[in-house]
Amino acid sequence: MSDTPNFSISASAAARICEIIAAQPDPQGLALRVAVLAGGCNGFQYQFKLDTTQNADDHRLTRDGADVIVDETSLDLLEGAELDFIDKLMGAHFTVTNPNAASSCGCGTSFSLA
């Protein structure tokens, strides 16, 4: 794997991450952890959570002051993908546009590989 992760953060996702972290009682060192876990209705699912821990195999990506932490295994599955934040009438949520996903479910948090 290259030293530069090919996983990007959209401007809207960066702005929302900054808002969420600023609203926390102790925002120091917080980042959004993005992980790919086995499960969901299509085989894999995305997990988003605030975290202060950075493990040895984690990569930290930064955009517009927003920090995102991704473990190396998840990063392999997110190669070429983008973290985005969608705010529509039906609801607001983080989403991943992942070219590696062969299919995804309606909830947008579960996908399968080709």
Strand arrangement, largest sheet? 4-5-2-3-9-8
> Helix fraction?
10-25%
* Structure class: alpha+beta
Number of strands: 9
Order of helices and strands: EHEEEEHEEEE
Tell me the distance between the termini.
20 Å
**Mean pLDDT over all positions:** 85
Low-confidence stretches are: none
Characterization of the model:
This protein has 114 residues and is an alpha+beta fold. Helix content is 16%, strand content 46%. The protein is built from two helices and nine strands. The chain is globular, with a radius of gyration of 14 Å.
Q: What key attributes describe this structure?
A:
six-stranded mixed β-sheet, about 15% helix, ATAP, about 110 residues, alpha+beta, HesB-like_dom_sf, three-stranded mixed β-sheet, FeS_cluster_insertion_CS, Iron-sulfur cluster assembly accessory protein
Summarize the structure in short.
This protein is α+β, with helices and mostly antiparallel strands and 114 residues long. Helix content is 16%, strand content 46%. The strands form two sheets. The chain has a six-stranded mixed beta sheet.
What is the secondary structure topology, with strand pairs?
Layout: E1 8-9, H1 11-22, E2 31-38, E3 44-51, E4 58-63, E5 66-71, H2 72-77, E6 82-88, E7 91-97, E8 101-104, E9 110-113
Parallel strand pairs: 1-6, 2-5
Antiparallel strand pairs: 2-3, 3-9, 4-5, 6-7, 8-9
